[in-house]
Structure formats: structure tokens, C-alpha cells
Amino acid sequence: MAEEVMWAGRFVSAVRDGKWEYVKRSRGIRAVVILAETDEGELLLVEQHRVPIGRACLELPAGLIGDGDSVEDSAEAAAARELVEETGYRPEAVENLGEYYSSPGMLSESFTLIRATGLVRVGEGGGVDGEDIIVHRVTRADVAQFIAAKRAAGVGIDAKLLLVLGSSSAS
Description:
The protein is of the alpha+beta class.
């Protein structure tokens, strides 16, 4: 059966395909998520208010591929740009770790996971257009406790942080 667009906005569209209703990114925009670690072994996490959940959320830095002026945007270029924008750190190296789906029963959106290393502080970060992003530098040894404290304080926890929690117990 053909996909029927029920509603389309600038960034997302609600579609129906037979009995399935789901949401997808509009205009072919894709997402990138950045696993950034300093030379001192600290992970960069960001905290920002997210309208859909009505509260702040703790996340890995992330952004959109192809939403700017460059139609030839790559996941690696977008990751480097978004990392500077959100955290104020520029990576010397980025590594594409593959494509993942965050909620395939409801969203067609995937994200490309990028590892960023050789981080150099080049600015304050904080995002753009009133994003008011708070940047946290957390050692792998402290990440589980840090996430638990944020959850206890009422901050939402992005499911992609399970990747960080799983890797911190293995380190």
C-alpha cells in the first residue's frame, strides 16, 4: 500500500502505510549523534529543555544532517559542526560507527553514530537560537552515578545513554 502523508511540517511528517501510522523526518533530513570523549577520559553530555517531554533531558550531543545551507552535508561534517555548536569542542578526528534506529515501531528516523576524539575547546557551546544547552564533562567511572543523580532530580534521560552506561561498565 502507498504511504499517505497525514500531516507534514518543516521537520517531521505523520504518515500512514496500511494500518501503520508513524512519524518520519521531512525533506530527507537525517540525524547524527556524537559520542565525544576528551583526552582526559571525560564524556561530553548535554542537557537541554525538550518540549515533547516538558522538561530538561540529558543526552549525547546530536544534530541534523542536511538542515543547513549545505545540501552535500555528510554525517561526519555535521557531527563536527554540531559538536562545536552544542559543546564548544572541535574534534580532531571523527569515526562513523554506523546507522541506528531509535524507536522503529513509531519512527522511521535513524541516526548515524559518530565517535569524536582529539577534542579542542574552541568556544562556549550552548547551542543556537535559545537552545540554552548545558555541557557536562563526566568521567566514564562517574557516568552511571551522574545519570542516576540527574534522573533523581527529574531530568529526562535519553535512551541513547544506555550506550554510555553499557560501555562504562565494560571499561
